[in-house]
Write a structure and sequence with these properties.
Layout: H1 2-6, H2 13-16, H3 22-31, H4 35-45, E1 52-56, H5 62-70, E2 74-79, H6 82-94, E3 100-104, E4 117-120, H7 142-157, E5 164-168, E6 179-185, E7 190-195
Parallel strand pairs: 1-2, 1-4, 2-3, 4-5
Antiparallel strand pairs: 5-7, 6-7
Length: 197
């Protein structure tokens, strides 16, 4: 699938998701970035070759894998779940994508200054609605949502002017006032931001 995306072919999410095991295809529509969203977001985030993009809550790597196949940016995913992290690493290896890497970590262990741009697809929502959880391998609670959102907001606020950010289906709790929306897409669900102060 990633070879097809790299060649510029249109790929549906159902087709793309065949790279994942059945148990992940079931949660893909809720938890994984749609192909078209990943393509639009990565093209905005990558200002030049080598731009380092952090995917906050990368899951099984769909956003990073598509970004690495479609652009000359470097995509780094951070994910807490070992199974999703390991799968993302394996898929990047299988598809010979050298411009992506994945870390298994809590977001509060990541210093944002090492990156140029950021992607957030409602990364912490599971903590608010546990009926939508992917699995039972990590602890979830409302306090973690607040803790993680506050940490991301503080880290983003410390980034230099003109830093780019894309959010998809976000409550915007993690967005500092120093960022302004430059444009929207997908009925306003996809927001393209830039730090203006």
């Amino acid at each position: 699938m990633l070879f097809k995306i790299k060649s510029g072919a249109e790929i549906s999410d159902d087709d793309f998701d065949t790279i994942y095991p059945d148990e992940l295809r079931v949660v893909s529509e809720t938890h994984f970035t749609p192909v078209i969203v990943a393509q639009k977001a990565t093209r905005y985030l990558v200002k030049k070759a080598g731009t380092k993009i952090l995917d906050i809550g990368s899951g099984a790597g769909k956003f990073c894998l598509i970004g690495a196949a479609c652009t000359k940016g470097f995509f780094i995913g951070v994910e807490q779940r070992e199974t999703l992290h390991s799968l993302a690493v394996q898929l990047a290896k299988d598809y010979r994508l050298e411009n992506t890497s994945f870390f298994r970590a809590d977001i509060t262990d990541i210093e944002f200054q090492a990156f140029d741009a950021f992607y957030i697809f409602n990364s912490f929502y599971e903590n608010l609605d546990q009926g939508e959880r992917i699995d039972d391998t990590i602890d979830l609670d409302k306090n973690r949502y607040t803790e993680h959102s506050n940490y991301v907001r503080q880290q983003l606020a410390a980034m230099p002017k003109w830093t780019r950010l894309v959010t998809y289906f976000s409550y915007l709790d993690e967005i500092p006032n120093s960022y302004e929306v430059q444009k929207t897409d997908m009925g306003g669900k996809l927001k393209f931001w830039e730090k203006v102060v």
